[in-house]
Amino acid sequence: MFLPKFILFILATVLMLIFCFAPILTCVHAGQLENISDTMSRLKREVLANHTIQFTTPSGVGAGETITITFPSAFDMNSIDYTDIDLEDDGVDLDLAASATGTTWGVNVTGQVITFTNGSTPVASSSVLKIEIGTNALYQHIGDRQIINPSIEGTQIINIGGTFGDSGSLAVVILDDDQVIVTAQVEPMLTFSISPLATSTLLGGANSASTDTIKQASTTSIPFGVQIINQGTILGQQITVTTNAGNGYIATLQQNQDLTSGPNHIDPFIGTNASPQKWEDSTHPDGTTANINTGWFGYTTSDETLSTGTPGRFGTGADAADYWAGFTMSNTPYEIAFNDTSVNNETTNIGFKLEVNGYQPPGNYGGTILTYICTALY
To answer: Does the N-terminal or the C-terminal CB of the chain have fewer CB atoms within 10 Å?
Structure first.
């Protein structure tokens, strides 16, 4: 039996329309969300965690449309509400309330589903939306509740949907424990070294240097050599300190005895550690009785921040190390360097000066031993 031609024509026309408009019908399907992620503050089971969910919406969100975030039943939503949630559109915070009104979005939490309802301001297509849930919500309110992670380990799927048309899902993993304990032990450390100071380094100020003889010290000796009457001789050493002590360090210097030659001796310089004095071209040993201020031996330091007395008493700036002190008492430590915090290769210049006048008895003077002591302050 053959169908009439007009019926065949109608059938052919319908089929042609279906095939022609099929692409148009498929293009109105919901879009797939892009770049979906959820950064959690903790992955350990049964602990509180913040969530930062982010995605790109190809379609945008129209006025009155909704976005839903559905958590698996294993998560405890812990009575969170809109005050524990922030929503951003391309980095701009949006106002939230319990219900939508005007430009304010409404947020409702029912069971495992968080529903965002847009007010009157559409979200453009290809916008990046970020949702912060927990104590990381700081825009209008400071969040004080967090979602509780599931009690079992494994992968959990969070679904995103709503009437805005796009949809997607993401996976998060729950661990038995997400933290490791890191420990380390740092040993106390102190290094101290002594080195000769270059003769080009100025000690004692410009006035002193113009009339003094500058000689080279070594690490273990201060050889003043043959003296010229009423002309000082200066030698220097540099100390270097490294310590991790939280309160820094203190360095002191002491001598065992005055320089002697038989029954004769050379006195300490008239300045003291507490009150150093300048020792320049106008200041010379002024004694006229042998062994009584007919010769002086003293020291200085470039440290401008000593811990006792006046911190910069040995001179500061251009006058650094321009004031001198004598070892007024034997076997007594005198402060020469200090810092109240940890240091790395901190250097201090220490100067030594000797001068005699015409009343100082001749001889080979010696017997003086200087002792450095450096103490870390933990």
So the answer is: N
CATH class of 190-376: mainly beta
3 state SS of 301 = strand
Tens digit of pLDDT for each residue in 208-257? 555 688 899 999 999 999 999 999 999 999 999 999 999 999 999 999 99
Q: What pLDDT, in 10s, does the model give residues 185-201?
A: 999 999 999 999 988 77
In contact, 55 and 34? CB cutoff 8 Å: yes
Instruction: Compute the distance between CA of residue 148 and CA of residue 268 in angstroms, rounded to an integer.
Output: 77
In order, the DSSP letters of 243-257 are: E--TT-EEEEEEESS
CA triple 28-117-85, angle to 5 deg: 125
Instruction: Report the half-sphere exposure of 237 (CA within 13 A, side-chain side).
Output: 21
Is residue 1 within 8 Å of residue 8, measured between CB atoms?
no
* Joined tokens for residue 65: 């449309």
Dihedral (Cα; 146, 150, 154, 158), 10-degree rounding: -60
CA-nearest of 117, 133, 44 to 85 is 133
Q: Look up the CATH architecture of domain 34-174.
A: Sandwich (2.60)
Q: Which two tokens stand for residue 53?
A: 């969910």
